[in-house]
Design a protein that fits this description.
The chain has 219 residues and is of the alpha+beta class. It is built from 5 helices and 8 strands. α2 runs antiparallel to α3, α3 runs antiparallel to α4 and α3 runs parallel beside α5.
Length: 219
């Protein structure tokens, strides 16, 4: 079959339209053109729309959306309270959501990628996979004992410390302790109600616990 110059000229407007990559007109990431494009071996492209913060050559993204070029609706969106690292490895795009995990010395919080969003193509079909990391160090039996003791010594009114201990209880549960899960569930009724920033922090911990339990395991 011969492709004439006339055929190419007739198809050109459609090819150009198909290659256009615009940010969603509504919702998160409404910034016009993507500030980053990720190309895949099947010819598809994914655009990154939204906001980024660069400090010391380290880039963090929040309030952003991913869009498949040529499609109007975003693939997925992340809000202003979410911070992510984004990296493409071979033919897979990773969006790594940062969490403050109490795994440092004396249970200090360390921010690191914990929940991973993975995007790749099978043929021309976009695939998504989401999972928690399984390579982050868990608590030892002694650390779990210390966390349970911290809970048992909690008193009403010290909200910031209560939230800190709730976060430790979550990680003790992740580390395999069922008693920590029981304690965690009692936090709002026993030590609340919470409001303002404290309520938001508790909601984050609770939502993370619920999603963890839904996933049941880290892949």
């Amino acid at each position: 079959m011969k492709i004439t110059l006339l055929s190419v000229l007739l198809l050109l407007p459609y090819l150009v339209i198909a290659q256009k990559c615009n940010c969603p007109s509504e919702g998160l990431g409404n910034t016009g053109k993507p500030h980053s494009l990720f190309s895949f071996t099947n010819g598809k492209k994914i655009g990154l729309c939204g906001y980024r913060e660069i400090k010391n050559n380290d880039t963090t993204y929040s309030e952003f959306a991913l869009v498949q070029c040529g499609q109007k609706k975003p693939i997925e969106e992340w809000g202003a309270v979410e911070s992510c690292k984004i990296k493409k490895v071979n033919d897979t795009l990773f969006v790594k959501e940062l969490y403050g995990l109490p795994i440092g010395k004396d249970f200090t919080v360390i921010w690191m990628p914990f929940y991973i969003n993975k995007f790749y193509f099978t043929g021309n079909t976009l695939q998504k996979k989401k999972f928690y990391r399984k390579d982050i160090k868990k608590y030892s039996k002694e650390q779990i004992r210390q966390v349970l003791t911290k809970y048992e010594k909690l008193t009403r009114g010290n909200f910031e410390h209560t939230i800190d201990v709730a976060n430790m209880l979550f990680w003790a549960y992740v580390s395999g302790n069922n008693e920590a899960e029981v304690y965690l569930k009692t936090i709002p009724k026993k030590f609340g109600p919470f409001d303002g920033a404290i309520a938001e922090e508790w909601d984050d911990i609770s939502a993370t616990y619920e999603l963890w339990k839904e996933k049941n395991t880290i892949n």
